[in-house]
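ugh ok fine here u go
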Amino acid sequence: MGFSISSFAFFILLLRFVLSTKKSKVVSGIEEMLGKEAEVIHKKGFVYQVRCHGEIWSARSDTELQINDIAYVKSISGLILQLQNTKDKL
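structure:
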C-alpha cells in the first residue's frame, strides 16, 4: 500500500511539472528573438552586422539604417535577421 501511495504522489508531481513547462514563456530560439532590439554595428549597403541579444548577427533591412541605429527583428531566415526600423509595425 505504501508503494502505491508513493508512486501515485510521484506521478502527480511529474504531471504538474510537465504541465507547468508547457505553459512557461519561450526563453530561447527564433520565437524569443522576434521583436527584439538590434543595434547596427557595421554596414555595407543594405547588409548589416548587428548586436542582438548579446550576439553579433548578419542582418538585412528593406530600409537604410546607419551605424548605432536601433532596429527590430522582424523575422529570421537561417542565420540572417530581417530588420525593421520601427517596432510598431511588427
